[in-house]
Amino acid sequence: MADLRTPELGHIVVLAGGLSYEREVSLRSGRRVADALRSLDLDVEIRDADATLLDALQAAPPDAVLPVLHGSMGEDGAIRDVLDLLDVPYVGAGPQACRIAWDKPTAKSVVRAAGLTTPPSVTLPKEVFHDLGAAALLDRVVSRLDLPLFVKPARGGSALGVSVVREAGDLPAAMVGCFAYGDAALIERYVEGTEIAVSVIERDGEPVALPAVEIVPAGELYDYTARYDAGDTEFVTPARISDEAARQAADAAVTAHRALGLRDLSRTDLIVDAVGRVNFLEVNVAPGMTETSLFPRAVTAAGLDLGRTLRDLIARRRFP
Q1: 220 a known binding residue?
Q2: Cα–Cα distance measured from residue 58 to residue 64, given in angstroms and rounded to the nearest whole number
Q3: Is 293 assigned a catalytic role?
Q4: What averages of pLDDT result for each successive group of 10 residues across the chain (320 residues)?
Q5: With a threshold of 0.85, does the pTM exceed it?
Q6: Would the annotation count 279 as a binding residue?
Q7: Residue 22 catalytic?
Q8: All domains of the chain in start order, with CATH
Q9: Which residues touch 265 (CB under 8 Å, ≥6 apart)?
């Protein structure tokens, strides 16, 4: 990304924290982002998304806001609505695009319509699961989708409440675990293959895919512990996939970014199966920025500096 000359860029607020299950991850992301921007001699303040935020933003409007809030408030469009109401520029997707991307079944439908391959799935709200008879319903799910299955909250992040189901008898417990983190479960056919993440940044208004990061967890799942405990997961950049699969993965991430109406930055999670087909899993509008997160790894693999990359995105929101 071009090194913009932005002496006019003044006070920047990094939003981190919030009250979601991912609060601690968000705070770690916020600290890393603030340090990266401060290394460029920028005036950066970290603020939590709490009862003091609205008054603070109105009393001293920042030049721009960089949200690194994870979970519902940070990714469901709500905080973006608030920033729009205050006429404060911010990095990242607008409220409507966030709402669509945050809802995984809706996002899957949108990207499928755009031509991407995504595993077949069903979505079951907690009420339907209980009211219609769990046993009979889950029997039909297994019959329709086949085993193994992947169960995850229809809305949420950091792999909280996710599980792989290889035996039909394990599905009820997986559903209960999922419902601990959300009111609806997305049940997908599990795709065996190479798990990768492709981050996207915008250059001159055009989304550009960064090198794919391959994810090799110590256990079966790239779960919350594997994501955020250093040493629990091996990351390989660029991913060990064919050149053709790498091209398709980059195209898929850019297609998802465009189809969902995202802007500035995003991260798309994909699986490359045994025949080299790229499968869309989900997209993240507020990628993690911790020391183990995928977006900063992709930035580094592209030969870019995290602070300068984020500064340039901020400058484009402040001076469109």
Answers
A1: no
A2: 13
A3: yes
A4: 57 91 89 97 95 93 94 86 96 96 96 98 86 79 95 81 92 91 93 96 95 85 53 86 98 98 97 96 94 94 97 86
A5: yes
A6: no
A7: yes
A8: 11-92 (3.40.50.20), 99-116+192-285 (3.30.470.20), 121-189 (3.30.1490.20)
A9: 91, 92, 199, 200, 201, 202, 287, 295, 313
